[in-house]
């Protein structure tokens, strides 16, 4: 007993006890807390998938099949990913109102929570692009000038130079991009909806897509500002050149006629 009491009165005894207590507490937390959190996350994800499957059976299965395998009326959704579902459903394109050359944007009929559940279910069918986080499509840190260059190289041939949209073949069209949620623009590049090609990270990196989203936000954000003067619809150099040709040449013809008339009148007098 005397030896034990002597050890307790040792100057380092309190420090040893404190370190031992911290080690035990840390070990218990590492052993139990992460497992509980992971289990909670798994439970929430499983519930989202379960609810999403119910929504899918009611609103999507008639065209895409009960397991998303596709039918003659709709393509397979295996491997399209959560981003494709978020884009198509949040923009109202899906469920489609009627068949046609292209499904237009319309008011969506699902809440964001229901869209997330549908996305979770479709994502469980096969790996695909996930819904981007806000940092991926935010303007913060984006290079707007580079985004404009990338857009003109990869997108302007269909969407025109500032995203005003344009006609394609067989009744299809490239939609206007002004007023579109930045997240949906990013998702469209990731997933390639309808006639649009997909731009994965191999062809356009995440920072490239962020730059393009920032460029579109800049050119379509302030409707009163046009640094180059009258924008003529923002359709690009063809419309501007045509305007210059018709009105410029027309003005020159008018001046030539006026000069000729004045000359003829002067000769008569």
Automatic annotation (TrEMBL):
SUPFAM superfamilies documented for this protein: Cytochrome c
InterPro entries, per the entry: bc1_cytC-su, Cyt_c-like_dom, Cyt_c-like_dom_sf, Cytochrome_c_Oxidase_Subunit
Enzyme Commission numbers on file: 7.1.1.8
Transmembrane region(s): 242-261
Pfam families listed in its UniProt record: Cytochrom_C, Cytochrome_CBB3
Cytochrome c domain boundaries: 47-126, 142-220
Enzyme class: translocase
Major localization class: membrane
Signal peptide extent: 1-30
PROSITE patterns hit by this protein: CYTC
Membrane topology, as annotated: Multi-pass membrane protein
Gene3D superfamilies tied to this protein: Cytochrome c-like domain
Substrates-to-products reaction catalysed: a quinol + 2 Fe(III)-[cytochrome c](out) = a quinone + 2 Fe(II)-[cytochrome c](out) + 2 H(+)(out)
Subcellular location: Cell membrane
Keywords assigned by UniProt, alphabetized: Cell membrane, Electron transport, Heme, Iron, Membrane, Metal-binding, Repeat, Respiratory chain, Signal, Translocase, Transmembrane, Transmembrane helix, Transport
PANTHER family (alphabetical): CBB3-TYPE CYTOCHROME C OXIDASE SUBUNIT FIXP, CYTOCHROME BC1 COMPLEX CYTOCHROME C SUBUNIT
Subunit structure: The cytochrome bc1 complex is composed of a cytochrome b (QcrB), the Rieske iron-sulfur protein (QcrA) and a diheme cytochrome c (QcrC) subunit.
Protein's recorded name: Cytochrome bc1 complex cytochrome c subunit
